[in-house]
Fold this sequence. Notes:
This protein has helices at about 40-45, 50-60, and strands at about 10, 15. With about 70 residues, the chain is an alpha+beta fold.
Amino acid sequence: HNRQRETFVSCNDFTAPSAAPRFSRTETNACRPIPRPGEHSQEILRDLDFTDHQISDLIRRKVATIPGSGS
């Protein structure tokens, strides 16, 4: 029953509940690459009003990470 209704979807080698509610004219496939650790760190910290200097300091002290920062 669940397989027929596509209650679960497989994406990036794991199974997860599919989107709900489902609409007949809307594509619900949200499968995209898994973010790398730290991929959105700077964006999130800026949204939280951290300055570039503060973000650099957090990365230097390995409190936060970004891809390629060696952490």
